[in-house]
Amino acid sequence: MLNIDNLIVHFDKGLRTLFSEARSIRPFPDSGLPDTALNESEKKLAAALMRINHSGEICAQALYQGQAWTARDSGLQKKLRQAADEETEHLAWTSRRVHELGSHLSLLNPFWYTHSLAIGAFSGLLGDKWNLGFMAETERQVGIHLQGHLKKLPEKDTKSRAVIHQMISDEAKHGDVARELGGAELSLPVRLAMQMSAKVMTRTAYWV
């Protein structure tokens, strides 16, 4: 239901996502792994990739919150909020790794968040099966994107690689849940539009 109380709740969630330090209930995936020395070019590459992943998780938070906001089924709302909570851990993992590598988070995260919140809310308004389909396709594309980062990261950067491996596992689980709950297959134009939007974010967050 769209009312002032919901607006306040989502505004508060947005502020927390963007400006509060995210926490992880589970142990960090890279806990106990040695922080192998990287040369400057390797550190710069790893930091840029992890910054992209952090911005991607900012988008995921916003998407799930927007989808939960407009979802019609209360059970689906609960599932989406649960997925958002789990994605919060990804924020914690990627943020810490970016800072360990001596770099910064994307300055455009407020824009990514607002943009993704609007998309998530719109997908929810289309109906629950499309809402779930959007969730499933998002997780599929994120998984492909993360696999690509594994190929680009320095082999000896075991800490970043451990974080990404766990993220891939979590994203696959969320996608499976969406499909099991009846997510509809999105059309090719919609899937391509999602890919184009993701490319804009990843290419920009690499530098800014």
From TrEMBL:
Its main location: membrane. The gene is coq. One of its GO terms (cellular component) is plasma membrane. One of its GO terms (molecular function) is 3-demethoxyubiquinol 3-hydroxylase activity. SUPFAM superfamilies: Ferritin-like (SSF47240). Pathway: Cofactor biosynthesis; ubiquinone biosynthesis. It is an enzyme of class 1 (oxidoreductase). It is a peripheral membrane protein. GO terms for biological process: ubiquinone biosynthetic process. NCBIfam families: DMQ_monoox_COQ7. It comes from the Bacteria. Keywords: Cell membrane, Iron, Membrane, Metal-binding, Monooxygenase, Oxidoreductase, Ubiquinone biosynthesis. Binds 2 iron ions per subunit. Its cofactor is Fe cation. Fe cation 1 binds at residues 57, 87, 90, 171. Its EC number is 1.14.99.60. This is 3-demethoxyubiquinol 3-hydroxylase. InterPro entries: COQ7_proteobact (IPR047809), Ferritin-like (IPR012347), Ferritin-like_SF (IPR009078), Ubq_synth_Coq7 (IPR011566). Belongs to the COQ7 family. Catalyzes the hydroxylation of 2-nonaprenyl-3-methyl-6-methoxy-1,4-benzoquinol during ubiquinone biosynthesis. It is found in: Cell membrane. It catalyses: a 5-methoxy-2-methyl-3-(all-trans-polyprenyl)benzene-1,4-diol + AH2 + O2 = a 3-demethylubiquinol + A + H2O.
